[in-house]
Amino acid sequence: MSASRLEQRKAQTRRKLVDAARAMLADGTAQRASIQDITEAADVGFGSFYNHFTSKDDLFVAAVADVLEEVGALLERLNRELADPAAGFAQSVRLAVRMARKRPQVAHILVRHGLSYLDGRHGLTPRILPDIIRAVEAGRFTVDNPRLAFATTFGSVLGTLQLTLVDPDFAAQPVDEQLAEQLLRMFGVAAGEARELATGPLPDLP
Question: Which helix (H) or strand (E) holds 191?
């Protein structure tokens, strides 16, 4: 087997293990799962596990990081055309909240494990925090502490995701728009403009 084919197979095996871990993180079975359970769910050989991860904890950390990076990269790609950082912030908040309907597995993982990665260098932090900083520098937000503003945003998004996942009546409301508008107003955007930014058209969330 050529080196490139071998690397491709290794990457596929790793992907299967991470995907199986993501499913377990989302449905709450990760803590009690054994490595045997994980490899069976991933449909890979037991021995191949240790070619990629030192322990199941190592795998689950990688799986959460994978989810955060997936969400962050998606928001970055969809916001690429927006010059106004306040508009980019509003769109990111709304799209993150809509994960509950479009990508429930991702939403469950964010709710259960996302807060532990609040200060991480991957995922949502390097995508939303810079928008807040740029909005402050441009005079769009009146915020003394951008990291506190990000923590407020992140916690609000996770709380809204949780309620959306468990409460159908809550989920039926335009909570993505409502949350974005409230945060914009909290950060100093005038009420009328906050409403306009929070209710504009959104790109499709794959």
Answer: helix 191-199
**CB-CB contact of 113 with 105 (8 Å):** no
Residue with tokens 């945060």: 183
Residues 123 and 191: their CA atoms lie apart, in Å, by 30
Query: Based on the number of CB atoms within 10 Å of its own CB, is 204 exposed (0-12), middle (13-18) or buried (19 or more)?
Result: exposed
H helix count then E strand count, the chain: 10, 0
Q: In tens digits, what is the pLDDT along the chain, a chain of 206 residues?
A: 566 888 888 999 999 999 999 999 999 899 899 999 999 999 999 999 999 999 999 999 899 888 888 888 888 888 888 899 999 999 999 999 998 888 899 899 989 888 877 776 767 777 888 889 999 999 999 999 999 999 999 999 999 999 999 999 999 999 999 999 999 999 999 999 999 999 999 988 77
Taking the C-alpha atoms of residue 25 and residue 10, their distance in angstroms, rounded to an integer, is 22
Nearest to 150 by CA among 68, 201, 89, 98: 89
Question: Which SS3 state, helix, strand or coil, does residue 103 take?
Answer: coil
| Pick from 102, 116, 101, 106: nearest CA to 72 | 106
Enter the pTM of the model. Answer: 0.85
Rounded distance between C-alpha atoms, residue 140 and residue 147, angstroms:
16
Asked if 153 and 102 count as a contact pair (C-beta separation under 8 A), the reply is no
CA 147 to centroid of chain Cα atoms:
17
